[in-house]
Amino acid sequence: MLTKPYPYCLVGVEIKPIFGDLQKGAPFFLSLASDSPVRADFEKSQMALNEAVYNRIHNENNAAWSAGGYLEDRSAILKPYPQMIQEKRYYHTGMDINFPKNTPVCAPINCEVAKSEYESGDGNYGGMVVLKCMENGTTFYLLIGHLERASLPEVGKKFAAGEQIARIGDFDENGAWYHHIHLQVLTEKGYQEGWANKGYCTMEDIPTLSEYTPNPTLFLFAK
Do the bridges between strand 91-92 and strand 28-29 make them parallel or antiparallel, or are there none, so unpaired? Predict the structure, then answer.
């Protein structure tokens, strides 16, 4: 159980940008919700958004980087994955942060690697890590997915805030997604009950979701 609810356990804690000096300014919010005007651009073969489309969206919006996704209804782009449709798990439980492949990914706060593995299959995480964090007496976890397989750290390795953990993976090792990371916060309860394997939830899950996987937006605005 949380002794101080997230994100209150991070009050007074310096949070480093996950992408270091590249993560300057506020992000452009790039929605993949079913009613998003750019959603169709992402419905490519194997979900891979090519660099030309990715760069066009950023250039048109004068965006150095982009993010979006917490609790978006993504039923439209999940059509290739029948398990999601059958279970009605349409709502994204993390936040996407969009940078090119091979971009270094850093620890936002001091942490230890609790899980580091490769999840094969289109639509899955590909390379992923779960980082165990403890601040002000509260333990919680950060899940980062869609990473380069060769860059994954070993379980038990400790990182100081700002240190490089891994790199963003390419289409053939990130679950066939466009180039980005999936960032998800997990409470101790959420981690123990398997939410590290749930990147999407049902509408019925939403009222109690903060008990398991709270909104990670706080990490977008680190300076």
Answer: unpaired
pTM for this predicted structure: 0.93
Class of domain 8-221: mainly beta
CA 129 to mean position of chain CA atoms: 10
Q: What is the pLDDT of residues 129-170, one digit of tens each?
A: 999 999 999 999 999 999 999 999 999 999 999 999 999 999
The helix or strand, by DSSP H or E, that contains position 52, with its residue range, turns out to be helix 51-60
Taking the C-alpha atoms of residue 95 and residue 183, their distance in angstroms, rounded to an integer, is: 5
Summarize pLDDT for 174-216 with one digit per residue, the tens.
988 888 999 999 999 999 999 999 999 999 999 999 999 999 9
Looking up tokens 């452009």, which residue turns up?
28
Cβ burial, residue 4 (10 Å; 0-12/13-18/19+):
middle
Cβ–Cβ < 8 Å for 117, 177: no
Question: What DSSP letter does each residue of 89-126 carry, written as one string?
Answer: --EE-SEEEE--TT-EEE-SSSEEEEEEEEE-STTS-E
SS3 185: strand
